[in-house]
Amino acid sequence: MRLTIIGGGGFRVPLVYRALLSDAARDSPDRCTRVTLHDTDQDRVRVIASVLAGLAAGVPGAPEVRVAGSLDEAVRGADFVFCAVRVGGTAGRVRDERVPLGHGVLGQETTGAGGVLYGLRTVPVALEIAARVRALAPEAWLINFTNPAGMVTEAMATQLGHRVIGICDSPVGLVRRAARAAGVDPAAVGFGYLGLNHLGWLRSLTHRGRDLLPGLLADDEALASFEEGRLFGGAWLRALGALPNEYLHYYYFRRETLAAARAAEATRGEFLNAQQGAFFSDAAREPGRAPELWERTRREREETYGAEGRAASGGWQRDSCDLAGGGYERVALDLMAAITGDRRSRLILNVRNGGTVPELPADAIVETVCEVTAQGARPVPCLSPGAAELGLMLQVKAVERATIEAAATGSRRAALRALALHPLVDSPAVATRILAEHAQHAGHG
Q: Residues 334-361, buried b or exposed e (16+ Cβ, 10 A)?
């Protein structure tokens, strides 16, 4: 199996390669034999290649790593293409977060005005990548990591149809933590999950035919043992009757998270911009230490993840079991194995809605439980969302679709609609000012 990673200079690429190495060590029959990296930043991709070389040292059958000089070269001959680009780099994320905060609304990479701004910049590039994959590797499967993942996957699906599948580590992390809190092996549970990317709810958690979720929601001690329980609090979770994705903290506790973001010394983007800049600089000077430097930086990144939500909910540290990785890269490998081996696996993925949520268009991307075979991923029947959840899904999907329209056509009217209709933007006048400042930055590169 041949894998291409577009955005191969990204900081999280070694997580994928490390998971591939575990398959190589087991001599899996459908293991990956070659990884091709491509990135517009040649300095960064060389650093990441040195990290991968260090990780592969001493591992029999480690996938060959090569760096492609062009997108077309990278895509040709691929069986799977991972899309993990960050258009504008971490400096772009800094602007996406700071501009909205300057106008009194939340700035975040995928949520609120920040997510819309990131989508406006990213969708055109994603469409170009999808078009090249369709032309040069029409039998390949594209697995999208690029944020905002649901929006970007939906844009790419206009080119690739069902052969593009979006993934995210948040839902699988929620299931894993909830199962541990309920006292069962995460590998032994069934689950019902539905929503959009970064806007979903765990509605059931079954073990040996029994739904454990009602008992978990009633147990304050168990809820206090994992991240989402502490983040939302038992009283609110019982009122909802479900476990929300961590990103819903921005919606349910918007006042508190906005206050925490405005009070923070640096935004998440500013932290990552400085941290990753230091890593790439240090690793370029000392390539022999690149794996060690990467692991140290990765650990710090995980420890500080979600700091705003934790600050807004009382302040607490992440659990050690959530710092080791094993999230989205494991989902990606499980997805590839299910397709190549034609195994019936159940995974939470971003795919076309079909009739899963009748109120949404059939081609809208939703995040839900899917059965994966050699034919791809198909949503399994699930509980319909409640009125409150459906209302939020409909509004955010309207925002996503307006953002895609604006990015694909250049329509300022669609961009304004996307910003102003977002639940976390409280005024069309504010949306107009944010859009104007964003355009000013874009005009200056």
A: bbbbbbbeeeeeebbbbbbbeebbeebe
